[in-house]
From TrEMBL, chain A:
Residues 135-168 are annotated as: Disordered. It is found in: Mitochondrion. Keywords: Disulfide bond, Electron transport, Mitochondrion, Repeat, Respiratory chain, Transport. This is DgyrCDS7850. InterPro entries: NDUFA8. Coiled coil: none annotated. GO terms for biological process: mitochondrial electron transport, NADH to ubiquinone. Accessory subunit of the mitochondrial membrane respiratory chain NADH dehydrogenase (Complex I), that is believed not to be involved in catalysis. Complex I functions in the transfer of electrons from NADH to the respiratory chain. The immediate electron acceptor for the enzyme is believed to be ubiquinone. It comes from the Eukaryota. One of its GO terms (cellular component) is mitochondrion. Belongs to the complex I NDUFA8 subunit family.
TrEMBL record, chain B:
This is NADH dehydrogenase [ubiquinone] 1 alpha subcomplex subunit 13. It is a single-pass membrane protein. Its main location: mitochondrion. InterPro entries: GRIM-19. Keywords: Electron transport, Membrane, Mitochondrion, Mitochondrion inner membrane, Respiratory chain, Transmembrane, Transmembrane helix, Transport. Accessory subunit of the mitochondrial membrane respiratory chain NADH dehydrogenase (Complex I), that is believed not to be involved in catalysis. Complex I functions in the transfer of electrons from NADH to the respiratory chain. The immediate electron acceptor for the enzyme is believed to be ubiquinone. Involved in the interferon/all-trans-retinoic acid (IFN/RA) induced cell death. This apoptotic activity is inhibited by interaction with viral IRF1. Prevents the transactivation of STAT3 target genes. Complex I functions in the transfer of electrons from NADH to the respiratory chain. Accessory subunit of the mitochondrial membrane respiratory chain NADH dehydrogenase (Complex I), that is believed not to be involved in catalysis. Belongs to the complex I NDUFA13 subunit family. The chain crosses the membrane at residues 30-49. Complex I is composed of 45 different subunits. Interacts with CARD15, but not with CARD4. Interacts with STAT3, but not with STAT1, STAT2 and STAT5A. Interacts with OLFM4. The keyword Amino-acid biosynthesis does not apply. The lineage of its organism: Eukaryota, Metazoa, Spiralia, Lophotrochozoa, Annelida.
Amino acid sequence: MPFTEEEWLPTLDELEVDEINMSSAPLKAGAHYFGKYCEKDCKEYMLCSSEEKDPRKCLKYGKRVTRCAINLYTQIRENCAEEFTKYWQCIDHADVNMNLSWCQATQAIFDQCMKEKLNFERPKLGYLSKTKVLDSSRPRPQRNLPLPDPVPELPDSADLPASETSDKRKFGRATGTFWNVLW
Amino acid sequence: MASKIRQEMPPEGGYKEVQWKRVMPKAHWSGYRTFLAFAAINGAAWFAYKWQMAYEAKRRLDENDARVALTPLLQAERDRMFLRQMRKNRDEEVAVMKDVPGWKVGTLWGEPIFHNLAERFPVVMGEEIYMHSRKADLEDRFYERRRH
């Protein structure tokens, strides 16, 4: 067990949230809208997880991401259920990689519905892959790493006595090799 | 009955001449035309290749968008699952080892498992997660024997 009893681990109640109960095809079908709709929460969570490298400290942000996702997919279900179902079923039966390029016809219908009923614009191609800067209010993690004492400074080489061998043998032969021993 | 012998004779007009001269194939295409055809086909193929590459790049970018968008959602869920399992495992270890004198949970008889002065979050081995489950479940998960 990597955690002692003194270390804090969240209790099971603290970890209990409404999980999103969907398979990969509908998740992928709504992924672009999710990335745009929950952009702030997602970025905040990913920044936390990459800075802290500690899932215990980013629980709050992770819960926000899941809540936002449930919020979005509920809206889709209430407004564009039929179009969305057709779209994700197309993706599900496209190929093993759930390639989006096979389903552009159903995707256009779904996009149309999202624009008319929810006024959600599908983000441009490559928008979500772009690197963006997040202005976060979360303080930077401070880590107090106990370091050893610094190495003391070396004495000045001019004060040291001259070496006896340095002027006698200009290029020292490597010692301890096989040929050296033979010689 | 007198047999009438019929002598086999060459055909009328004589045999055909024996072809002794080497027959060269007829050149349909001149060298210039061949090179022109080479350039045309390769040029067309180059454009087709570029078009295909552009299409593939767009497709991959779209796929990458979906992947990037979903990563936080899946990772947040995975983090919670992991912490839940760690909590369960620790509670289980406390319950199992409560009668053993000198045993400290999370250590080996009081000796810490990690040298962790900076108090980083440890990299937990997969065996730790499946510590209190059946070995078959662990192997299912590790070697992907689970039906999916």
